[in-house]
Amino acid sequence: MKEAEQALGTWDISVQSIRAATVSKVYHVKSTTGERFVLKNIGAPDVLVRTETWFRVARHVHESGLPIAYLVETNMGSFYSRIDSSIYILMPFLPDDDPNFYGPDSAPLYQTIGAAYGRLHAILADFDGPIETWEDNAYDPLFKDYVPEALPKLPGEARRRVEDALSEVKDHLLMIASSLPMEPIFQDVHRGNVRMVKGEFRCIGQRIDDITTTLISMIKYRGRNGLPSEDETDEHRHWWLAHFGEFLTSYNAVNPLRPLERDHMLYVMLARCLPELEEIEGGTASLELMDWFYAHRTEIEIGIMSIGG
Q1: Across residues 248-272, what is the average pLDDT?
Q2: CA 52 and chain centroid, separation
Q3: pLDDT, tens only, 129-159
Q4: Residue 219 phi, psi dihedral angles, 5° rounding
Q5: Phi and psi for 290 in degrees, rounded to 5?
């Protein structure tokens, strides 16, 4: 805590209180004027190049009118405070809530986050500046990283079924990776990051990754970033199925989807339903989500194609 308090002196803030968050190396700060901030220790100086990219891009998004956890400048006009070997950044605290995405009245929430991500991608695409960060696409992480690591560790029948799914999506993902433009994307998308409170700008890639990750995370994970509980998974997914098209329609209204994105989106979503490598290595891999996706494939495809494009 003492080091965090020392880091705060780099910014022109009269501090009323500082307390550690539940996340390690993150602190909640309140000023004497009532403003709230998040102070974060992001590690050693080797993160500075990437963090400077975050600073410039997040500032651009903020100045374009979209709420985001931009980096507050220090007294010296820098974007960080260095205390010994630690780099600290300061961001405004954005109010958070825990809305219900899994009910009959949830459609407006899907409309809101769909429009928000549409605006985010449009603003990122308009960023005019160098991006010293890494690239990503829809194909490489799955077929160059996941496949050689995951498949040998799956038991026979599960491996066969995953191989069948991979065979189905392979050409579609390769087409996307080779044909869609590389753009600034967020890459840490889930409903907990709708207002970008806990995340950060990550890389350049293809926006279809952000869109599909956002949607599938809502029916894949649990807790604040996904399904509320295990007891009512089918019901929660039923309401997602009823509303996810609202996300795409609202996204498309503010940032039109390309026909190639729309036509291949089903297959990118299916790829997101494969068991995680960590689950496979831990012996807890399940094909339950993949099975659910196949069972509702027609409804999902109708929801995607209904947006036009």
Answers
A1: 97
A2: 20
A3: 777 666 778 899 999 999 999 999 999 999 9
A4: -120, 0
A5: -60, -40
With tokens 């190049």, the residue in question is: 49
| Cβ contact 19:28 at 8 Å | yes
Q: Quick one: DSSP state of residue 141? A: I
Amino acid of residue 144: K
Task: Give the bridge partners for 20, in sequence order.
Answer: 27
In the chain, how long is the greatest CA-to-CA distance? 62
CA distances from 199 to 69, 91, 152 (A): 8, 11, 33
Whether pTM > 0.70 for this model: the answer is yes
Give CA–CA dist 81/88, Å, rounded: 5
Query: CA torsion, points 18, 193, 210, 206, in degrees to nearest 10?
Result: -30
Give the single-character DSSP code of 37: E
Domains and CATH numbers, the chain: 2-92 (3.30.200.20), 107-305 (3.90.1200)
Strand boundaries in the chain, DSSP class E: 15-20, 26-31, 36-43, 81-83, 86-92, 183-185, 203-205
Backbone angles phi and psi of 19, in degrees to 5 = -145, 150
